[in-house]
TrEMBL record:
<feature type="domain" description="HTH araC/xylS-type">
    <location>
        <begin position="242"/>
        <end position="340"/>
    </location>
</feature>
<keyword id="KW-0238">DNA-binding</keyword>
<keyword id="KW-0805">Transcription regulation</keyword>
<keyword id="KW-0804">Transcription</keyword>
<dbReference type="InterPro" id="IPR009057">
    <property type="entry name" value="Homeodomain-like_sf"/>
</dbReference>
<dbReference type="InterPro" id="IPR018060">
    <property type="entry name" value="HTH_AraC"/>
</dbReference>
<dbReference type="Pfam" id="PF12833">
    <property type="entry name" value="HTH_18"/>
</dbReference>
<dbReference type="InterPro" id="IPR018771">
    <property type="entry name" value="PocR_dom"/>
</dbReference>
<protein>
    <submittedName>
        <fullName>PocR ligand-binding domain-containing protein</fullName>
    </submittedName>
</protein>
<dbReference type="InterPro" id="IPR020449">
    <property type="entry name" value="Tscrpt_reg_AraC-type_HTH"/>
</dbReference>
<dbReference type="Pfam" id="PF10114">
    <property type="entry name" value="PocR"/>
</dbReference>
<dbReference type="InterPro" id="IPR018062">
    <property type="entry name" value="HTH_AraC-typ_CS"/>
</dbReference>
Amino acid sequence: MISEYLRINKIFDLKKWEALQDSLASVTKLAILTVDYKGNPVTSHSGCQSFCHMVRKDPDLQRYCQKCDSRGGLEAVRSNKPYIYLCHYNIIDIAIPIIIDDKYIGAVMAGQVRLSDSSNANDLEQILTSTNRKIYNERWEDLEGHYDLLPTMSYEEVVTISNMLFLLCNYIVEEALNKNLIVEMLERASGKTDESGISAILPGYTIKNIESLKKEMTNAVADAYLKRTTGEAEVCSNPVLKPAFTYIFEHKSETISLKVMADLCHISPSYFSRLFAKETGENFSSYLAQMKIKWAKQLLEVTDMPVSQISDELGFNDPGYFIKTFKKYEQITPSLYRKYYKDQ
């Protein structure tokens, strides 16, 4: 894996992650922040408590917060699991490590709560203490009232939530790598015509299996967003044609030819065309185009994918051709369809 691709902004879609982060903070009652491997924030602070907000905006105290974030992340890396600790103000914080190919790229920091049973705090490490007690004493008068507003949780609740966040982060990183990281490297590698060039960028891969992997990922993305209508592929009553219908609905991102479908059904292309027209009332190319436009409408409605990406996800060779086909059946461009749908 190439180190330049292992930056946290390459792995996470930070805009979408922040939206999820906000929801998680609301549900769990924890403040959540994502940082890079140095402890520098890469997202806004979701659900930040007023006490911590005041501490973090104080230039004399903020650096202690960043040091806690950095050291907490490193401690989590050592154990490769959530690390629960006390910050410099004796408040519960959690570090969720983000590790790829044994490389630490950042962490999801959660916390800003007090333990309902303070006896459990004795087993937790205070990760950082300051020798400059004068600063803390001077600030305490302004901070004390906000400290009392911090939410409380049992130690068991903190552990349960930290494990949930760890599993969620691992899942998101895996999905992001499968879809975004490898596709990015594929684009870089696409200009290489020799296998040695590909191997230098993606060790262990060849042009053939990279293209196959990209096709599988594209199929997965389309299927993940499209509504799954049970029995969709069972619209066919003719058993001879069923393999073709099953293939169409399971390979939405592919450009499918009539001959390939005929071969799949073990009949000639001309006989396949006659059976298909009798079954659907449409010729094969028209039916396939209409299905792809139906799926495109779903993607326009439920995702913020660019039109060019939807075109790619549904196997159109060119975004211009996709727009032309969409307008043929819907009398409107994809962009306008999305705008009118969302304005309803």
